[in-house]
């Protein structure tokens, strides 16, 4: 792709921002995009998968479970249907590595579809703790749920809510929050030509306004001592450094945490903010002319204070005795692997909710946990699950 296919205002803007680096940057649009897949460690270890992989794989240096692949179509292989890996843009894998959730924590992926980062977070949590994956767009939330199911994730609840509604329910609840914000998508121009059609300077400003609103909601849901990671797949300072500059000025109890930068990852640029805030260099930029991947921006922040014990109400088992009896009979004769979680009946459907799952009253819940099955009455007064 030559620069003549790019929006003229975008070319002018990037030339002004990058100056001496602009030529190297624009040269990447004439190169083939790189492809990656991330091994699902909930089902197979990277070392084991390398022994059975039909393709030659090259490690992605900033993600221990990520690999580049070339001249292959892994999406058509049975391993993909079995959930052994997730096809993901390489730079996008860095975001979850920065948040680094631990097993047992309460984690929110606020803008989760299609699920690449959600499934990566769940694997890092080893399916333990509580992960809420939210997507505001109804059409996109279906793909999110399908990917979570395909990869065998059991500690995740999927909702289709606005950030405001969630912030009313989960005030200071989460230990860690990821805001992979909707953006102008400049970093995906090489990968997705459609992103170019929607780009304009006005669109950049609208995205920045949306990002400020989402971050304000995320702040309300972050516990004291908690970690918030903000990311985009765009180059625009208005959506990156300037958003973080605004956020830190607005919420003075938030502080930037330095992100380790190796393997071509660059610091954020202080003089691209209105205040020339020096510690903006703690943020990270992934540029296509510095590494093998598309464009990304990542900032890691912490809310000052001591972590407090949450004393809210959790979901309790509501399964009727007759359904529970049939469930136990079915499990004893059919499935040997014990299923963890709080059993909960939604009508005739039985789910295993994550342990210590908070009450979800009033929320649009798309997937409340692991779907065990449906309880049906059959002939001769028998039942089946």
UniProtKB/TrEMBL annotation:
Belongs to the class I-like SAM-binding methyltransferase superfamily. RsmB/NOP family. The active site is at residue 233. Keywords: Cytoplasm, Methyltransferase, RNA-binding, S-adenosyl-L-methionine, Transferase. It comes from the Bacteria. GO terms for molecular function: RNA binding; RNA methyltransferase activity; S-adenosylmethionine-dependent methyltransferase activity. NCBIfam families: nop2p. The keyword Cytoplasm applies. InterPro entries: Methyltr_RsmF_N (IPR031341), MeTrfase_RsmB-F_NOP2_cat (IPR049560), MeTrfase_RsmB-F_NOP2_dom (IPR001678), Nop2p (IPR011023), RCMT (IPR023267), RsmB/NOL1/NOP2-like_CS (IPR018314), RsmF_methylt_CI (IPR031340), SAM-dependent_MTases_sf (IPR029063). S-adenosyl-L-methionine binds at residues 111-117, 135, 180. The keyword Methyltransferase applies. Residues 1-304 form the SAM-dependent MTase RsmB/NOP-type domain. GO terms for biological process: RNA methylation; RNA processing. This is tRNA/RNA cytosine-C5-methylase.
